[in-house]
Each structure stands twice: as C-alpha cells, then as structure tokens.
Amino acid sequence: MTAVSVRRLQTCDGSTLRAVNILFAQVFDDPESYASTPPDDAYLARLLARREFVALVADSGQGLAGALVGYELAKFEQARSEFYIYDLGVADAMRRRGVATALIDAFCVIANAGGGHVAFVQADYEDLPAIALYEKLGQREEVLHFDIPVTPRLR
Fold first, then answer.
1. Per DSSP, what are the bridge partners of residue 73?
2. What is the C-alpha to C-alpha distance for residues 135 and 48, in angstroms, rounded to an integer?
3. What is the pLDDT of residues 118-139, one digit of tens each?
4. How far apart are CA 108 and CA 103, in angstroms?
5. Residue 107 — very low, low, confident or very high, per pLDDT cuts 50/70/90?
C-alpha cells in the first residue's frame, strides 16, 4: 500500500481536471474521448461548482496517482440519492497499491454525507482487474447497458 492523499477538486481546480483528462486518456487508451477537444476554463469552473459533480484526485507525493469522477443522481421514489462512479483511473506505475480503493472510499464518504443510498460503477467484461476490485468492495449485479443516441431519429 502506498500512502496517497485524496482531495475533492474545487471550482478553481480546472487545470487539475485537465490533468485528470490526460491521465484518463492514457489509462483508458482513449485520447479521442479525453484529450481531443478539451473544454474551456469557464465550462470546467461551472462543472466543478456543481454539488452533484464529484471529482477526486489521489496524490502520492510524486504527482497525480489516480482520479475518480462521479455524479450524484437524485432519486424520485424516495428522498435519497445514488452516486455513480463514471470514471476511475490509476497511473500505471501506481496500480495495485491501494490508490483506487482510497478514491472509492473517499467517494463513499461524500456519498454518505450527501444522503447517498448506494454508490455504483460499471465495468467492461474484459477489465478483470477492475472487476476483481469492485467484487471485493461490493455486490455484483448483472445488467445490460444501452447507449441511446440523443440526436433526432428519422421515422
């Protein structure tokens, strides 16, 4: 286990959120999604100011060790929320050192304080290390995920 400090990004941390995007582009091998058209400073400041947006970074003293981005989803059926881990990435050199667990633990503290009922995450079938981590921390559910385009469909 490597000691890391985890902190939640604030409105003024746009440059750090840009570094998170670069980390995610590397970790997920997806520069098109994460690095091709970065948002401007005003957009990042607005996003970071939203209470329901949670961006956490883990610092090992040597720089950015990992990051987690998630969202609070207010529910309608009861006065509670669910917290969704949208992206979680750890620098290659910092894997298997407790960084992801530290980020998830910090996220769960925020979720609990915000009236969260549960935190949840999705994993790709081929990402066996992520699946092993999530099974260690929580209960697995088998679901199907569908991406539905939001552009108008021709009928």
1. 82
2. 30
3. 999 988 888 888 888 889 888 8
4. 9
5. very high
Q: Write the burial class of residue 100 (CB in 10 Å: 0-12 exposed, 13-18 middle, 19+ buried).
A: buried
Read off the tokens for 148.
Answer: 């539905």
Take residue 112 and report the two structure tokens written for it. Answer: 């609990």
Cα atoms in the Cβ-side hemisphere of radius 13 Å centred on 111: 23
Amino acid at 63: G
Tokens 């996220």 found at: 107
Residue 147, judged by CB atoms within 10 A of its CB (0-12, 13-18, 19+), counts as: exposed
Amino acid at 139: Q
- Strand-pair partners of 5: 59
Q: Where are the beta strands (DSSP E) in the chain?
A: 5-8, 53-59, 64-74, 81-90, 116-121
What is the reported pTM? 0.89
Reading phi first (left if > 0) and then psi (alpha if -120 to 50, else beta), residue 64 is in beta
Alpha-carbon gap, residue 102 to 68, rounded angstroms = 10
The Cα 105–Cα 87 span in angstroms is 15
Q: How far apart are the C-alpha atoms of 50 and 10, rounded to whole Å?
A: 9
Alpha carbon distance 91, 44 (integer Å): 22
